[in-house]
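> forwarded from #structure-qc
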């Protein structure tokens, strides 16, 4: 397992909109996947390896696992801060997330996603992440 580096994290801010709410006037649980995606794309873009660059490098990176822990509800226009951090990169790309209430700093959601590299030509899953990921992240193979 990789040791996380502080520079492998990023925070984004957002406010849930009206169409994100369920009939109970809280954010519908399915929208948290969208919030994670927003943070993940911002993080990967920081390393110039967002989805278009992944494709151009010859790999797809499907999510093969996503785990969520709902700690508290998010509400309409609540200011949220989402922290995404890359914690593994050798055999898979694992990103951990924390969603905070901006005002109190209270964690309202924890999650992680796991992605694996798939060679676009052969459609074969790679059991070791391709060196392009390590180069973009600025980390050395262990």
């Amino acid at each position: 397992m990789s040791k996380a580096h502080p520079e492998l994290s990023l925070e984004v801010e957002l406010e849930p909109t009206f169409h994100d709410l369920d009939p109970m006037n809280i954010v519908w649980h399915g929208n948290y996947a969208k919030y994670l995606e927003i943070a993940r794309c911002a993080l990967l873009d920081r390393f110039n390896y967002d989805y278009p660059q992944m494709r151009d490098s010859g790999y797809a990176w499907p999510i093969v696992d996503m785990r969520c822990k709902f700690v508290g509800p998010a509400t309409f226009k609540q200011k949220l801060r989402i922290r995404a951090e890359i914690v593994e990169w050798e055999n898979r790309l694992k990103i951990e997330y924390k969603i905070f209430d901006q005002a109190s700093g209270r964690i309202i959601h924890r999650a992680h996603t796991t992605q694996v590299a798939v060679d676009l030509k052969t459609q074969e899953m790679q059991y070791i992440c391709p060196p392009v990921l390590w180069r973009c992240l600025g980390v050395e193979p262990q």
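QC bot note: The first strand starts at residue 9 and ends at 14. The CA atoms of residues 58 and 121 lie 7 Å apart.
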